[in-house]
Design brief:
12% strand; alpha+beta; Beta-lactamase
Length: 330
């Protein structure tokens, strides 16, 4: 852990100053977890709502279906939901859903309307593929395609592959999750939110679960299909991971909350920060979450890091600064 002293001091400093109520920070390399600690009134195995980190996990499940020939990025959403988009002149495909380019209008995070109904009735903001606006409802479409193609729900798909690498703590139904201290003030009823069981935001888990996934992804980066056959079945093939890391957004217009100036490209559910101005190393992918959760993999540096915390308002907290401390420790 000594190599990552600056990173853990970063977390301790922000919790001590009250900018973060609690934090669990961990670092992994391809051979496993190398550092893990908790700050504030939590333990390192605390279960947090992951919010949009869920998108990556749903994305891996969809990518596994692509590897099996059950889906492609060109598969239309109407294959699973023929009633979708009856009034739309365009075609929404899996590639649009995974890259925030579907144009489906976004409902509230804690909507009381079933997400499938929202998906089918929300209408569109722009033609599919012509712009990028961050979307959580699109992942309900991905979930529909996963279930139609594989016969299993998206969350069952996540449980299967995650459990195979020791990340069995991921769940939609946590017993005692860490509370988001200002969720109500930010306009979200957490009980209603959990009831949505959102495939783009609903999973809970431990830092250890995400670190095991990050370590597995790092192993895939350094392996070939033949290597994997000699060791163990991985959660993705090298080709499948490469597909997920390929940008699907290019230079199309980017709308708030992620304008072009933020330097974010979208791959197959992955946030590719290839143009992020605040980072030392832009060979990075992963995702952040609404309450400050972070999951990032640096394949070139061979490191993954996870931050779990529980506040929507984080004035003075810059996760890019934490990222830089981790990469600089290599």
């Amino acid at each position: 852990m000594a190599a990552y002293t600056a990173a853990f001091e970063w977390a301790q400093r922000h919790v001590a100053a009250g900018r973060l109520p609690t934090a669990v920070l961990g670092v992994a390399r391809a051979d496993g977890i190398v550092a893990l600690d908790a700050f504030g009134d939590v333990t390192a195995d605390a279960v947090y709502p992951l919010f949009s980190i869920t998108k990556v996990l749903t994305g891996i499940t969809a990518a596994r279906a692509v590897e099996r020939g059950l889906l492609t990025t060109q598969t239309p959403l109407t294959d699973a939901l023929p009633e979708f988009g009856a009034s739309r002149p365009d075609v929404v495909r899996l590639g649009h859903l995974v890259s925030h380019t579907s144009g489906i209008s976004e409902p509230p995070l804690d909507t009381e309307i079933p997400l499938r109904t929202e998906l089918l009735t929300r209408g569109r903001d722009f033609a599919a593929g012509t712009a990028s606006r961050y979307s959580t409802i699109a992942f309900e479409g991905i979930a529909a395609l996963i279930e139609h193609a594989t016969g299993a729900s998206w969350d069952e798909g996540v449980r299967r592959w995650a459990s195979s690498i020791g990340a069995g703590g991921l769940t939609l139904d946590p017993d005692e999750p860490v509370d988001v201290v200002d969720a109500r003030r930010a306009g979200v009823d957490m009980a209603r939110f959990r009831a949505t069981r959102a495939p783009g935001a609903g999973l809970h888990g431990r830092a250890e679960d995400l670190l095991r996934i990050g370590a597995e992804l790092l192993r895939i980066h350094g392996s070939t299909a033949r290597d994997q056959a000699r060791t163990h079945e991985s959660i993705l093939t090298p080709a499948g991971l490469a597909m997920m890391r390929t940008s699907l957004t290019g230079d199309i217009p980017r709308f708030d909350p992620y304008p072009a100036t933020d330097g974010q490209d979208w791959g197959f559910t992955l946030n590719l920060r290839t143009r992020a101005p605040g980072l030392i190393d832009r060979d990075v992918y992963g995702h952040s979450g609404w309450s400050g959760t972070e999951f990032w993999v640096h394949p070139g540096a061979g490191v993954c890091w996870v931050l779990l915390t529980n506040s929507v308002s984080r004035h003075g907290v810059d996760a890019d600064a934490l990222d830089n401390t981790v990469v600089s420790a290599i």
